[in-house]
Each structure stands twice: as structure tokens, then as C-alpha cells.
């Protein structure tokens, strides 16, 4: 290890597990979810660890203190995304925000996202369309539960709700080729969170030639460009026909800035829209599914959340966002879900831009840096011996701990300059969905009892392996109409 470290100019590199020639530490990650395998390695090697994935040095921060050093103390040094082959190919068409390296382009687009596209005021302005989509979700569930008494697969209905809520905010309506678009996006996400051979062996032409993933990324990019152009064209045609009025959907805002000679070319607009869909849909949808699954396993929490929602909305026929600020316990349920099931368990990768000292160790320039938010959320040193249990009440006791970037023991949205700018948007979607599901239906596990499978899929995101299948009975006060189509 010493010889290797000297070669990379490190006097005191972070510790890590033993490495094999060529593949480095990869064999330690085989057969387990990366965030779980990395947590287990960190328990042996410490909160800052150096792995080698093929040729790529990867530093993993697994404690609140290590996360603070990466995302606060040395935030500027770690504020860029890695230039891996996969990221470079995904961004080859044009750069939006998520994959953009730290620099002037990212600064401008980030400012636009924070101040214009994802501000609390803008998020509030989409409230009407969100409420309409939530009601569609309820109507679809009512139809599904009318058709048979068999358990309903809630997962795709939740995914559709989130996709439509994001879509109506971003492009003002459901788009024509919505399913193809979502499929393309999903493929893009899958390749974005994995590693391809050329990522791990960037100096090898053979790796590039052999890599099926690299070809898949290329195909996904071409498909997304075609679909995004279709979305923008559809939008322009609608505007030209006078069908858009004064709509303030995000694509309109971007097109207006472009038309006024602002700093946005059409490629950037396309990439920003793609990034908002990509970053916003899957993460919120997965969290709602986990929240429902956890509530079903914790009947006392389910009863308390349901009583709160029905109390706050007594006498009303559907959920309006006016009630959301009153739903303190539902908010805690979402917090606790994000603690246990951060949808991006390793956040999004960063890259070390200059040699840097973290917790007394040298981090090499060019290393990929991962923060294991999932492990930090379950660290018994912070959360106590019941860290693995779902107990929303813990946030009543520790009211100060929040996910807005100041508390490094709880970082599902990251922190610092690259922190998620979509928190208000995500929370509005998740709170509305959960409140609607709890208000309109009584829920039971299939067969009345039993364990819900909480297994996770083999992916770096904290996906559920099994979809959530539950028995939904309309609450007696529910006046929702089943969907007609
Ligand atoms: C449960 C919901 C969500 C979670 C847990 C989440 C989490 C994250 C995380 C961990 C990052 C990377 C932070 C880092 O590098 O430190 C991120 C970045 C980002 N998120 Fe979210 N997100 C959520 C919802 C949303 C929504 C709804 C939107 C927008 C509609 C959004 C837009 C973005 C964007 C644009 C970035 C890239 C920021 C940058 O690179 O500067 N996110 N998100």
C-alpha cells in the first residue's frame, strides 16, 4: 500500500481493504448493495476509506464528521462531479446542472434553478396541478380496489402520480409520448448510477471496445435527445397556437429567458429539463413507496398518521395543500423514511479537484468521493441502539436535526454547494401523496397480516425489490370517484 501511495503522492492515504492487481477493491463489493458493502467495510476500516475500483480511486465518507469535512469544510474542493466515461457520454449532448462540472455554466444554471425554477414561490404556483394529479392517483386506486379485492400494486400508481406531477410542473401538461419518455429517463438513470468498464479502466481502449454499457449509454443519450426535442416542439406548437396562455411551467420560463437573449442555449434548456425529471421523479416516488411500506409494518405509526390527516381534513372531500403544514406527524414519517431509505444512498458522486486533507488523511486529486448517507442515517453513535427501527417520534425528541444541510448526521439531500435544490418540490409531492393515500383509504397487508418484503434491489439506489402490494379499502367518508379510464 505504501508503494502505491507514494506513486500517487500521498503521504497519509485513508485506510482501506486489501486490493487485488487490476481490479483493486472491486471484489469487496461483489454480491451486495454498494452502500451496504461500503458500510460494512467502513465498520472495519474507518469513517474515511480509500477503495480502488479498477484504476479509479474512490474515497468513501461514512460518518457525520467525515460528511461535514467533505460537504462543508472542503466543500469547494469537492464541488465538482466526476468526469467518468458514463457521465461524460450522458452529458455529451449538452450540459444541464446535475452532471455539470463546477464552473461558470453550473453556477448560472444552479442560480436559475434555485431562484427561478425550484423556489418555494414557484413550487406553490404548481399546487393546483399537483392536487389534480393526487386526485387522479386516488381515483385510480379506487378503481383498482373496486375491480377485485385482491391486493393492489400501489408502486406503479405512485410512480405515475409523481411523474405526472413533475411533468405538469415542468412542461405544463402530460406530454404525448409520456410512456416512451419515462422509459428513456429510467434507462438513463439506471446507467447513470452504475459503473461501466471504461469508467473503471479509463486508460484502456479494450475496455471501451468491450463495454456494452458504453454502447447502451450512447443509445440512451440519442433516444433522450429525440424525445426532449419532441417535448420542446410540442410545447412550441402549443404556444404558437395560443394554447399556453400565461402558463408559468418551467419550460415556458426557460424558453422565455432564451427568447429574451438570456444565457441559455437550446441544448442547455433540453438538458435542464431532462435533469429536473431525472432528479425529481424517481427519488420522490421511491420515498413514498418506502413510507407506505414502513407504515404497514408499524401499525401504531399508521394509526397516528391517519388520525392526524383525517382530523386536519375533517369535513372535506379531498386533500388540499392548505392542510399540509398542519400534518406534523406525516412530515416526521417522511423524515424517518429518508433517514432509513435515502433514495440516493451514496448521494451523487463528487470529485476531488485539488489534493485535500480530510480527517487527517490525504485525499488524492481526481478521486471520486462518495458520502454514504444511508450508513450515516443508521449510525448507532448518532441515532442510538434503535437506529435500524422506524420511529418517526425520534424527530420530536431531537427537533433540531433536519435534512436542510446543517446537520451532517442526516444528509439524504446532500449539503453544501451541490446540495439538492429540489427539496421544497420533493416535499410538496411526497406530503400530498401520503396525505391523500391515508385520507381516502384504509390499508391492510394482503391476508390481513404478515411481513412486507423490505428487501432492496441490487442497485446503488435504495430501490425496493418487491413492489408494494396492499389491500386498499375506501374510507367510509371518502367521496372519491373511481377513474373512468
Ligand atoms: C426525495 C426527494 C429527493 C431527494 C432525496 C434528493 C436528493 C438529492 C441528492 C442527494 C442530490 C446530490 C447532492 C450532492 O451532490 O450533495 C441531489 C441533487 C439534485 N437534485 Fe434532488 N432529491 C430529491 C428530489 C428532487 C426534486 C423533486 C428535484 C427537482 C424537481 C431535484 C433536483 C435536483 C437537482 C437539479 C440536483 C443537482 C444539483 C447540483 O448538482 O448542483 N431533486 N438531489
UniProtKB/TrEMBL annotation:
GO terms for molecular function: heme binding; iron ion binding; monooxygenase activity; oxidoreductase activity, acting on paired donors, with incorporation or reduction of molecular oxygen. Keywords: Heme, Iron, Membrane, Metal-binding, Monooxygenase, Oxidoreductase, Signal, Transmembrane, Transmembrane helix. Pfam families: p450. Its cofactor is heme. PROSITE patterns: CYTOCHROME_P450. SUPFAM superfamilies: Cytochrome P450. InterPro entries: Cyt_P450, Cyt_P450_CS, Cyt_P450_E_grp-I, Cyt_P450_sf. The keyword Signal applies. The keyword Nuclease does not apply. Heme binds at residue 420. Belongs to the cytochrome P450 family. This is Uncharacterized protein.
Amino acid at each position: 500500500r505504501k508503494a502505491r501511495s507514494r506513486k500517487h503522492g500521498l503521504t497519509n492515504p485513508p485506510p482501506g481493504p486489501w486490493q487485488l492487481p487490476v481490479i483493486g477493491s472491486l471484489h469487496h463489493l461483489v454480491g451486495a448493495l454498494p452502500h451496504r458493502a461500503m458500510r460494512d467495510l467502513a465498520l472495519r476500516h474507518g469513517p474515511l476509506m480509500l477503495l480502488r475500483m479498477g484504476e479509479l480511486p474512490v474515497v468513501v465518507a461514512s460518518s457525520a464528521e467525515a460528511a461535514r469535512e467533505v460537504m462543508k469544510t472542503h466543500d469547494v474542493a469537492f464541488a465538482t462531479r466526476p468526469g467518468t466515461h458514463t457521465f461524460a457520454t450522458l452529458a455529451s449532448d449538452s450540459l444541464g446542472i446535475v452532471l455539470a462540472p463546477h464552473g461558470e455554466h453550473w453556477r448560472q444554471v444552479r442560480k436559475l434553478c434555485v431562484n427561478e425554477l425550484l423556489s418555494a414561490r414557484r413550487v406553490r404556483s404548481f399546487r393546483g396541478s399537483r392536487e389534480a394529479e393526487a386526485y387522479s392517483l386516488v381515483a385510480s386506486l379506487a378503481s383498482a380496489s373496486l375491480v377485485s379485492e385482491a391486493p393492489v400494486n400501489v408502486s406503479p400508481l405512485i410512480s405515475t402520480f409523481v411523474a405526472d406531477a413533475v411533468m405538469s410542473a415542468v412542461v405544463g401538461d402530460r406530454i404525448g409520448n409520456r410512456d416512451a419518455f419515462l422509459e428513456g429517463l429510467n434507462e438513463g438513470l439506471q446507467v447513470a448510477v452504475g459503473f461501466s468498464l471504461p469508467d473503471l479502466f479509463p486508460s484502456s481502449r479494450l475496455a471501451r471496445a468491450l463495454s456494452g454499457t458504453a454502447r447502451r449509454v450512447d443509445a440512451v443519450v440519442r433516444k433522450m435527445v429525440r424525445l426532449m426535442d419532441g417535448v420542446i416542439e410540442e410545447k412550441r406548437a402549443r404556444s404558437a397556437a395560443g394554447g399556453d396562455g400565461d402558463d408559468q411551467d418551467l419550460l415556458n420560463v426557460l424558453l422565455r429567458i432564451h427568447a429574451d437573449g438570456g444565457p441559455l442555449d437550446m441544448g442547455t434548456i433540453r438538458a435542464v429539463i431532462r435533469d429536473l425529471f431525472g432528479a425529481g421523479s424517481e427519488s420522490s416516488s421511491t420515498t413514498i413507496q418506502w413510507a407506505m411500506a414502513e407504515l404497514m409494518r408499524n401499525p401504531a405509526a399508521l394509526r397516528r398518521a391517519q388520525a392526524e390527516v383525517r382530523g386536519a381534513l375533517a369535513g372535506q372531500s379531498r386533500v388540499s395543500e392548505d392542510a399540509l403544514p398542519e400534518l406534523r406527524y406525516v412530515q416526521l414519517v417522511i423524515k424517518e423514511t429518508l433517514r432509513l431509505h435515502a433514495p440516493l444512498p451514496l448521494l451523487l458522486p463528487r470529485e476531488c479537484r485539488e489534493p485535500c486533507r480530510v480527517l487527517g488523511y490525504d485525499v488524492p486529486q481526481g478521486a471520486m468521493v462518495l458520502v454514504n448517507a444511508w450508513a450515516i442515517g443508521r449510525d448507532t453513535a448518532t441515532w442510538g441502539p434503535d437506529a435500524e427501527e422506524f420511529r418517526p417520534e425520534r424527530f420530536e425528541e431531537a427537533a433540531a436535526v433536519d435534512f436542510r444541510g446543517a446537520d451532517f448526521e442526516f444528509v439524504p439531500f446532500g449539503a453544501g454547494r451541490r446540495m439538492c435544490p429540489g427539496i421544497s418540490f420533493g416535499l410538496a409531492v411526497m406530503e400530498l401523496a401520503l396525505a391523500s393515500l391515508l385520507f381516502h383509504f384504509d390499508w391492510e397487508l394482503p391476508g390481513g397480516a404478515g411481513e412486507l418484503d423490505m428487501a432492496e434491489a441490487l442497485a446503488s439506489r435504495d430501490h425496493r425489490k418487491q413492489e408494494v402490494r396492499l389491500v386498499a379499502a375506501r374510507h367510509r367518508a371518502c367521496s372519491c370517484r373511481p377513474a373512468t379510464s
